[in-house]
């Protein structure tokens, strides 16, 4: 399936149609330091407050806060979660570039928050494998290769194909009909050419299908693999074209047709091709 930023709204977690995502937050380029700056024994800049160990802020230009006209500042409630969604969207949209290092203080200025929730969100992304900690500088976006993407597609197929085949045998046609609106919403998102928006709806559709298996562990694992598959490749295009997204979205409808008809051969073929892009 399609491979998917910053987002002010919670990510969809069930079969309901997700809200239209907010516009992606632009992440400013991060200047590379000329050398390691001086720090005291605790890892702080002498005479500076707010700097933290593990992040370089010296020489970085101030970044304007997010506008309040049409784009509200991140609310203080659930700040960490909103920042995490925003960074995930920026990652998928290509605004967090593979190989580049970003500091929490500078990103905090951009979002209108302190560095703390940004750092916490980045640490979560590090756990997920999207970024890695760079001592005294910040967080580097991991550079991924085509082989890793192919491995993710293989693992997803190993997990989801058997589940889809079982669901095709046991789920009544009426239940598949309930998922049609999600497939249509995915197609509408694809028609805009917005990769980050499409990625949200794509994951929502897959979660809704797999949720019929009634296995929470399956949902967690599949969603993590799906999200990783949406990260951009190092040196590759930021996103596929609108035509590619529309073609991927059309496969959702075709899959529902095959599941409804209990056509196991078509279900297996569609799922495998959808993951690999073959």
Task: Please describe what this structure looks like.
The chain has helices at 79-93, 104-111, 115-128, 146-170, 173-177, 180-191, 195-211, 216-229, 242-261, 264-276, and strands spanning 101-102, 131-134, 138-141. Helix 2 (104-111) packs across helix 3 (115-128), helix 4 runs antiparallel to helix 10 and helix 6 packs antiparallel against helix 7. The N and C termini lie close together (11 Å). The chain has a 3-stranded antiparallel beta sheet with strand order 1-3-2. Strand 2 (131-134) and strand 3 form a beta hairpin. The protein contains 10 helices and 3 strands. The chain has 278 residues and is mainly alpha-helical. Mean pLDDT is 77; it is low at 1-17, 19-25, 32-54 and 56-74.
Largest sheet: 3 strands, antiparallel
Task: Tell me, briefly, the overall form.
Answer: elongated
Unreliable spans are 1-17, 19-25, 32-54, 56-74
Strand content: under 5%
N/C terminus separation: 11 Å
Q: What multimeric state do the chains show?
A: single chain
Relative helix content? 40-55%
Could you give the count of β-strands? 3
Mean pLDDT: 77
- Work out the radius of gyration: 20 Å
- What's the helix-strand series? HEHHEEHHHHHHH
**Count of helix runs:** 10
Helix/strand class:
mainly alpha
Spatial order of strands in the largest sheet: 1-3-2
Descriptive tags:
single chain; 278 residues; 51% helix
Question: TL;DR of this structure?
Answer:
51% of the residues lie in helices and 4% in strands. With 278 residues, it is mainly alpha-helical.
Blueprint of the fold:
Layout lengths: L78 H15 L7 E2 L1 H8 L3 H14 L2 E4 L3 E4 L4 H25 L2 H5 L2 H12 L3 H17 L4 H14 L12 H20 L2 H13 L2
Antiparallel strand pairs: 1-3, 2-3
């Amino acid at each position: 399936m399609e491979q998917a930023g910053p987002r002010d709204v919670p990510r969809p977690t069930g079969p309901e149609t997700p809200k239209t995502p907010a516009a992606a937050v632009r992440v400013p380029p991060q200047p590379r330091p000329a050398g390691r700056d001086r720090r005291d024994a605790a890892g702080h800049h002498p005479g500076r407050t707010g700097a933290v160990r593990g992040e370089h802020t010296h020489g970085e230009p101030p970044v304007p806060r997010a506008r309040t006209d049409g784009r509200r500042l991140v609310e203080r409630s659930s700040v960490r979660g909103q920042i995490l969604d925003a960074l995930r969207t920026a990652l998928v949209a290509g605004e967090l570039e593979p190989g580049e290092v970003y500091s929490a203080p500078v990103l905090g200025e951009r979002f209108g928050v302190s560095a703390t929730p940004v750092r916490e969100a980045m640490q979560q992304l590090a756990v997920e494998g999207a970024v890695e900690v760079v001592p005294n500088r910040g967080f580097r976006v991991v550079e991924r290769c085509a082989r890793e993407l192919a491995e993710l597609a293989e693992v997803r197929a190993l997990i989801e194909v058997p589940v889809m085949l079982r669901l095709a045998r046991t789920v009544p046609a009426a239940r598949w009909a309930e998922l049609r609106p999600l497939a249509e919403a995915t197609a509408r998102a694809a028609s805009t050419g917005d990769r980050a928006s499409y990625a949200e709806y794509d994951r929502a559709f897959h979660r809704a299908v797999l949720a019929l298996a009634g296995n929470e562990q399956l949902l967690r694992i599949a969603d993590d693999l799906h999200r990783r598959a949406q990260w951009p490749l190092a040196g590759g295009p930021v996103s596929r074209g609108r035509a590619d997204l529309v073609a991927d979205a059309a496969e959702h409808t075709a899959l529902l047709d095959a599941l409804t008809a209990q056509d196991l051969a078509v279900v297996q073929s569609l799922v495998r091709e959808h993951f690999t892009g073959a």
